[in-house]
Amino acid sequence: MKLPFVCCPCRHSLRIPTLRNVHISRQYTRPSFAPKPTLNLKHIRQNPGLYEQNCIDRNYAPYAKNGWRILELHDRLVAQQREAVELRQRNNVLSKELKGGASGKSTLVDEAKELKGELAEYERQERVVQEEMEQLALELPNLSSLQTPTGEKPKVVGHINGDTPPSNHSGKSHVDIGRELDLLDFEASATTSGWGWYFLKNEAALLEQALVQYALTLAMRRGWQVMTPPSLVYSHIASACGFMPRDQSGETQIYAIGHQEGKEQKASLVLAGTAEIPFAGSQANKTLSESDLPLKIIGPSRCYRAEAGARGVDTKGLYRVHEFTKVEMFAWTAPPFSSTSGFENDEEVQQTPSEQVFDEMVALQTEILTSLGLHARILEMPTTDLGASATRKIDIEAFFPSRTSIDNGYGEVTSASVCTDYQARRLNTKVRFERGEVKSTFVHTVNGTAMAVPRVLAAILENGWSEEEGVVRVPGVLRKWMPGEAATIGPRKRTGVD
Amino acid sequence: MKQPFVCSSCRLSLAKALKDLGVNGSVNNKRAYTRPTFATKPTLNLKHIRQNPGLYEQNANDRNYAPLAKNGWRILDLHEKLVAQQRAAVELRQRNNALAKELKKPEEARVGLRSILLDEAKLLKGRLAKYEAEEKSAQEEMERLALELPNLSSVHTPSGSEPQILRYLNGDSPPSGKGSKSHVDIGKELDLLDFEASATTSGWGWYFLKNEAALLEQALIQYALSVAMKRGWKVMTPPSLVYSHIASACGFMPRDQNGETQIYNIATNETSAAAGTGLVLTGTAEIPFAGSQANKTINEVDLPLKVIGPSRCYRAEAGARGVDTKGLYRVHEFTKVEMFAWTAPPPTSEGGLDVHDDVRSESEIVFDEMVAIQEEILTSLGLHARVLEMPSTDLGASASRKIDIEAFFPSRTGIDNGYGEVTSASTCTDYQARRLNTKLKFERGEVKAGFVETVNGTALAVPRILAAVLENGWDERRGGVVVPRCLRKYMPEGLEYIGKG
């Protein structure tokens, strides 16, 4: 069949990727003022098989050979550099002779010129090879921790509020509860914005405020500092944190801001799907003192996720939405003492600073969910679930009475990840210390959800629903933020007077 | 020269661009977004415009919308042409019917040859089709011209560009002895604000709030909600992303009357853009609130419907950088608590503009209540401010009347005596309701349904209030900021003072 003619502008806009041996570039273009990544190419060259296996374990098969290719390129580079050295030596000899006023000057000048040209070409090639190696290294996901199960199955490591789901529930979905009690409006949001948005009304809107306040209060008690970040960030910052325009399934997860006509724009902006991104970016190109670490912050922000390809069963409700409020924890820690790759921990008995903070995050998440009265299970996530930046991830899944047919009703409400130096190397965040010979190196970063409002709200509505009374019981810890410290949310009176 | 090949999709988009060149060949500065098929269909008061073209012309000039001043006259023109055409079409239809009757008759009774009659019928059909197409095109043009026109101005609104000072809050003149330390410096000293970090992550116009400043933001939101809730306002939290046609229907065009871009839009593919289903970031919760009642009919007994809610707001602020190169005074992203209300229109109004007596309309009552809430909040926060009746050039597209309140910023005494806008309240009569098709059902003599009126106002816009609280609360002797009393219960341990360390 004859292919339809596609004119040049259309061809350009269609951007048909030529899938052969050329990798599909998933990175954003990095503007000149962006932090320059410093990757551990040496470790990759010395362990290409490790990185290959890791890619396969993580479902990043297209990049499995990157380590080998880096090794190859490096060998080629070393050989080229040797050749260039010879040329340079000859060049030096020539310039000495030219200075000495030797005879046959013109032939010498010609040879010098030719050499100069050849050397310039070598330098250019060297640059190209360096960039190629950096690009290949940038595509590789982080290595996985020892605690991380290989494959697709998470491991249950604990429960909250009982070992099994509660049995005394009606299974009513939060969508129906929201309609009955005038708490949620999905129709209005369908009109204004389409699928995946919602209006919170009355007590639900107040519960959102209460949940944010509660999460901040608990974290502050444990010494976390509050910080409220922007929701719009440069795309290269998102990319450096491991958030690519397309994830490993080829889905678009990030909303990009359209080009502003007539406005001079330094670089493209995107909507952050988590405060992790602006938090991490806030220390880009910075060097922290060892005494500042661990630096632990927590803050609320509005998060945006395209959730492409994820609609499936969740056609309505708060379970999967495009926009929500989330309180996020982020920490910068010193790397473990002896590591150069961050992974030679076998001989260490103590926890690394990042592991300590990671455990603290999970403890805080556990405390919050426990006090909200929600039954949940704690999972050590497997390699296929880790994404690009995490070396280790623990998710907590709360029980949703209306979803017992999907995964026994369990749905993710929090996540915590250790990213070792993946983000720090890409954002150039360092720590300065005195440890033998090493004067400064990259920090480790850790992040975790303190409170993602929609799902926790949905869980509270469904678990707190009493079918006989037709009310939702408000968790005790939240009552001080509700009007009149009400213990329940009941039906609204339907008159014009209130 | 050989024409370059243009493939079919390019040809389509080119055709669309050509279509935008108006009827008389002048370039149409198309300011409205493409309206998708599922969007609300606006119902404009064309009759009122036709009957008062001079009023709309004057209004457009008063509001700095000069390019649109002749729209009313053009609508009148088009209408008259349309009426004449419709008359001509009526005659053609009559002739067409007569022909059809003739053709039905048996041959002997017929007047004229069959073939000639058929030819004439074909000709008439063609002409009628042409009339119908022209009629449709004229109506679309009239609607487009009417959509462009800004709302008419209230009798309270001064003409021109000078606001009128109505009253002051917390004293008749700015407080003395406040020093002039800017919130930026206070923020640096007390580790409350970080503009460097935000310059790295996002560029100019963003910021990180730290420690007590982040907590003050939460406290301000809680406080503002409580003030309105006490007066019976319902809390509602809206989305920040909406369809572009919803923003447009509320009066927020991709370019304002200075040609500046104020709205961030989400990058989308061509199909989406052509279908008009692209999304934009809202600069105010007014937009999703108004849109929440699009295509709805509300019962009169449910009005006035008054909601208040916090949302994250985004403004491109193009062309506005000027003096405000740093700080919270002009930013691209912020939290705002917004009030919105739907009210019943006054009884006799057709254009919603008939002035009568001292009886306030429902929207005027709600408008006054909004301003009262704003004044209560600012008074309790201890900020000196002035209340302004805004002039016609400041009203934008949708507002019929606007009151702004400007608080005093000790660090800005060189600009406008230190006063800077912190709240705004607007009454939009039926401008938004007609574009969003929000109606009410009632029984008033013969009229069974009509368009609601909408009113909106800022309860609290965090950055500027925060900046004002920091600057006005700064205690030079102690080197810290005194927390306003009304906020202390919302701060951890009832914090009264923000000091160093």
UniProtKB/TrEMBL annotation, chain B:
The residues that the entry says bind L-serine are: T284, R315, E338, N456
Keywords, alphabetical = Aminoacyl-tRNA synthetase, ATP-binding, Coiled coil, Ligase, Nucleotide-binding
Q: Which residues form the Aminoacyl-transfer RNA synthetases class-II family profile domain?
A: 182-484
Against Gene3D superfamilies, the record matches this protein to: Bira Bifunctional Protein, Domain 2 (3.30.930.10), Serine-tRNA synthetase, tRNA binding domain (1.10.287.40)
Whether Ligase counts among this entry's keywords is yes
MF (Gene Ontology): ATP binding; serine-tRNA ligase activity
**One of the protein's GO biological processes:** seryl-tRNA aminoacylation
Q: Where is this site: Important for serine binding?
A: T458
Enzyme Commission number, as recorded: 6.1.1.11
Record: residues binding ATP: R315, A316, E317, V331, H332, E333, F334, E421, V422, T423, S424
Name the coiled-coil region(s). 82-148
Which InterPro entries does the protein's record reference? aa-tRNA-synt_IIb (IPR002314), aa-tRNA-synth_II (IPR006195), aa-tRNA-synth_II/BPL/LPL (IPR045864), Ser-tRNA-ligase_type_1 (IPR002317), Ser-tRNA-synth_1_N (IPR015866), SerRS_1_N_sf (IPR042103), tRNA-bd_arm (IPR010978)
Q: What is this protein called?
A: serine--tRNA ligase
